[in-house]
């Protein structure tokens, strides 16, 4: 959601903003492990649940600027940052319950032996 919102404000940086999602395809990750020469390879999909006390608690690390997406966010003018925050908050509204954000995150874990 953040990458999508940011790419509307920074279209020339779209590819870089989505870089952290480049390994979202299990087949592609497996192929990279093969190409790198790993044996006993495994790619598994993990789903984790998490919650935040509030949207503000979720947003705090983004405001602090750790990571490429938060850095891009912090480089925007104040008015654009407000727009991005409002957009992300609106998109996360369905995950809010009694003020808390309850979400799941899906990731791929790739392992192998060199």
Give the overall pLDDT as a whole number.
94
The SS-based structural class is alpha+beta
Q: What is the count of β-strands?
A: 3
Helix content: 40-55%
Explain what you see.
It is a single chain. This protein is an alpha+beta fold. The chain has one domain (2-113). It contains 6 helices and 3 strands; from the N terminus they run αααβαααββ. Helix 4 (55-64) packs across helix 5 (68-75). It is globular.
Concise account of the structure shown:
By secondary structure, the protein is α+β, with helices and mostly antiparallel strands.
SSE map:
Layout lengths: L1 H8 L4 H4 L8 H10 L3 E14 L2 H10 L3 H8 L2 H15 L3 E2 L2 E14 L1
Antiparallel strand pairs: 1-3, 2-3
What characteristics describe this protein?
48% helix; 3 strands; 26% strand; 6 helices; 114 residues; 3-stranded antiparallel sheet; alpha+beta
